[in-house]
Amino acid sequence: MAIELTYETVAGWFDVYFEQVCRYQGNLETVPKLKRFFAANLQLTMHTAPSQTPLVMTRDALLVSFIHPGLQEDIFPKCYVIDLRQRIVAVQFEIQFHDGPTGKQWSPIQASAHYHLTIDEAGTILIHKIEYWTESLPADVFEIWAQRRSEALAKLATECLNAPIAQ
User: Fold this and answer.
1) Cα(48)–Cα(133) distance, rounded to whole angstroms?
2) Residue 114: strand pairing partners
């Protein structure tokens, strides 16, 4: 059964989306739960100041970018602008980073995104395109982000390499 796109259903869907992104990003074990929000052909274009070159990501690349154990990224939506006819939702939000192991917290940054929605054959809302703009992040956030992701992926690779070989 197809979902009826109304302001209320779309805003409610995004409330759940942002709550779950905050809850499930970070850990390699929980990030896969976020896959359900994105179409397989997702394209995200990230415009981060002061870079002149946008970063383009697929759904898998976006999900990998959510892996950064210990570094919490809380997203607080401030405003939704919902265009039901074009199936585009513009969101202005604030992002707060907090590093669990060290206790360091950075000043909030401002960001906005245009989410282009689609409805799959099961009637589920999915994001198939994101145009994302954000202030420049502090350099040490990227360093911690990259270090934590690298450690998590190295641990996964080691576990895979040491797993029993099926005969």
Assistant:
1) 6
2) 90, 131
